[in-house]
Known about the structure:
Elements: H1 3-10, E1 13-16, E2 27-30, H2 34-40, E3 45-49, H3 54-63, E4 67-70, H4 78-87, E5 90-93, H5 98-107
Amino acid sequence: MTIRTLVNALSLTVLCSEDQLDQEISGGYASDMLSCVMAGAHKGNVWVTLLTHLNVVAVAVLVEIPAVIITEHSPVEPTVLKKAETEGLVLLQTPEPTYAVVGKLYELGVR
Length: 111
């Protein structure tokens, strides 16, 4: 499944790196603890979180996560968007809570 498919299926807002939407997603991970993401997420996962600081970009790049879904319309600073764009990281946003997003991802077959 591509990031673009997720964007369309979940009505997500693309915040940056729109040119990267055709990357494949291999699974999903949800956490607001950076150390848990570093230990538990895998290359190609989509990460669901309400965190929006610069370290989200750093961890996503480290783990080779191509896209982050930011929940609850958490505001994202321009510096974070710029860094994510530079790294080719797709940042997506939704007003829905993490729990609802994870359920929808599961229904779409994202494990």
